[in-house]
Amino acid sequence: FPERIPDNDKTEYPSMVFIGRLVNKKNPIALIKAFEQVLSKYPNAKLTIIGDGPLYNKIYDYINFIAINESVSLIGEKPHNEVLNILKKNWIYVQHSVTALNGDEEGFPTTILEAMSYGLPVVSTIHSGITEQIIDGDNGFLVQEYDFNSFASKIIDLLDSPDKIKDFGESG
C-alpha cells in the first residue's frame, strides 16, 4: 500500500471523492467500474460520492450488487461547507464526465477547481470545459469518455506514486 500522503488532514487510506448530480453526463457507473479495478490493487481504498439525482438508486443497487458497499460511501447531497471539509480530506478528485446519449454535457465544472484549490490531483475525461482545467500529466490525468479501464489505470498510477499526488496537487 502507498505510504501516507504527507498531510495531517488527509485520510490514512487511499481516498477518492466525486461531487455532483447523479446524472448520465457525470457517468457515475463508469466511475464505480473504474474504482472496482482500483480496489483489486488497493483493497483499503475508499470512494466518497457526494450528490443526488435520478441515478442515485441505480448506483446504490449497483454498489451493493458488486459488493463494494464497504468501500464506497454514497452520501447524498450535503451543505457546501461539509462538502469542502470532505473534499480536503481525500487524496484524489475523480469525475468521469461524458456526453450523454441525449446530448447533455458538462460546461466548466467548478468542483474540479474546488478540488484543485485543496491540492487534489484530478482524474477526469477529455470532455467540454474539463480540458481547460486539467493539464494532462501536470495537475491531473485525462482519459477518453467511457474508458473506465484507462480511468482506473490513472488512479492506480497516482496511488503508486505518492510524490506525484503531491506534485500534481501543488500544480493544481
- Average pLDDT over all residues: 94
Helix fraction bin: 25-40%
Q: What can be said about the biggest beta sheet?
A: 6 strands, parallel
Looking at how many chains there are and whether they match, the oligomeric state comes to single chain
Spatial ordering of strands, largest sheet: 3-2-1-4-5-6
Residue stretches low in confidence (pLDDT < 50, at least 5 long) are: 1-6
How many DSSP H or I helices?
6
Provide an overview of this structure.
The chain has 172 residues and is α/β, with parallel strands linked by helices. The chain is built from 6 helices and 6 strands; from the N terminus they run E-H-E-H-E-H-E-H-E-E-H-H. Helix 2 links the parallel strand 2 and strand 3. Helix 1 packs across helix 5. The protein is globular. The N terminus is likely disordered.
Topology (elements, then pairings):
Blueprint lengths: L14 E5 L8 H14 L4 E5 L5 H10 L6 E5 L3 H10 L2 E4 L14 H8 L4 E4 L14 E4 L4 H12 L2 H10 L1
Parallel strand pairs: 1-2, 1-4, 2-3, 4-5, 5-6
Helix pairs in contact: 1-5
Short description:
The chain has helices at residues 28-41, 56-65, 80-89, 110-117, 148-159, 162-171; strands at residues 15-19, 46-50, 72-76, 92-95, 122-125, 140-143. It has 172 residues and is an alpha/beta fold.
Q: Top keywords for this entry?
A:
disordered N terminus, alpha/beta, about 170 residues, six-stranded parallel beta sheet
